[in-house]
Amino acid sequence: MADAPGPSGAPRPAPPPLDDVMLAMDVVDTLRHRERLVQTELASDGRDEAMLESLRSIYASQGITVSDEVLKQGVEALAEGRFVYEAPARRPETRWAYVYVNRAKWGRLLLALFVVGALVFYGYDQVFRAPHRALVNDVGRVHATVLAESRDPAATARAETLYSLATTALAKGEDEEARSSLASLRTLEAQLQASYTLRIAAETTGVWRVPDLNTEAANYYIIVEPIDRNGKNIAIDVTNEETGKTERVKSFGLRVSDATFEEIRRDKLDDGIIQRDVFGEKQAGFLQPEYYFDTTGAAITSWD
Question: 195 with 283: CB under 8 angstroms?
Fold first, then answer.
């Protein structure tokens, strides 16, 4: 069959066989992977012939017979840029299409960013915000507990003052100040919850001291021991009037008048046993004990 005429009326050349086209593509691919060969041959005077000779050697070494016509087609195709895919220039309207095609990559990237962001937020929250929230909760909880347990107007007023100091400090972001007020609230809570009997000590019942500021006078103290409802001698916080320091002790001396001191002394001397050995009672809900003997409430924590 004769070839169909082209636009100029001349007959169109018959298309090369498919095998030749595939071989030409392979030649182009071979030349691309042997870039050094191409650069060398292109720099030489008889470059086409030298390149064809090199290609013949390559295919001969692989046991493949390739005609010179096919080799020339491959060289020409390389020079013309055939069989080369050139991606179209990206346009704004194709941007979302590329995003969709690469959605898996973008999804992994967004997931990684989300995880990193979540870890950063969690770490910041645990280091900086969680302690503050716990402090706010503790201040409110301890304040409410103190108000519920207090039966002493002085304790209630003290609790309100400490709570006000703590909340003001929290509002200003001064957490350390708030913690100091919270510590005082907890001490107040412990004082209110304490319940014990002040028993007069049998071994060392009383002592007297000569104050430094008045050597002509004497201060008398009755030694007492806090006993809880289980009969156990417990330690409580007592402020020593001579040093001004608060110590946690299991026995201490309460200042009494000389008449009270003498009354208790006679009670012990008549038969060796103190008949009235309960000096006072500390009930839950109150700050101070109720005393059954005359006392100023001033105390000492050591007498040796």
Answer: yes
Q: What CA–CA distance (Å, rounded) separates 83 from 208? A: 115
Judge contact between 201 and 251, C-beta under 8 A: yes
Tell me the helices (H) and strands (E) count for the chain, helix number first: 10, 9
Helix/strand/coil percentages in the chain, nearest 5: 55, 15, 35
AA identity, residue 139: V
Most confident among 40-49, 90-99, 197-206 (mean pLDDT): 197-206
The pLDDT tens digits for 2-55 are 444 544 555 666 666 667 667 777 776 776 666 655 666 555 555 667 777 777
List all residues 6 or more positions away from 2 whose beta carbon is below 8 Å from its beta carbon: 11
Cβ neighbours around 234 below 10 Å, total: 14
Q: What's the rounded Cα separation, in Å, for the pair 236 and 48?
A: 107
Concatenate the DSSP letters of all residues of 159-209 into one string: HHHHHHHHHHHHHTT-HHHHHHHHHHHHHHHHHHH--EEEEEPSSS-EEEE
CA 140 to chain CA centroid, nearest Å: 22
Distances (CA, A) of 138 to 78, 114, 229: 80, 33, 29
Token representation of residue 181: 């007020």
Separation between Cα atoms, residue 175 and residue 166, nearest integer Å: 8
Average pLDDT, the chain: 86
CA-based nearest residue to 221, from 193, 189, 198: 198
Question: What is the distance between the alpha carbons of residues 139 and 149, in angstroms, rounded to a whole number?
Answer: 16
Identity of the residue numbered 174: E
Tokens 């007959």 sit on residue: 11
- Asked if 293 and 261 count as a contact pair (C-beta separation under 8 A), the reply is no
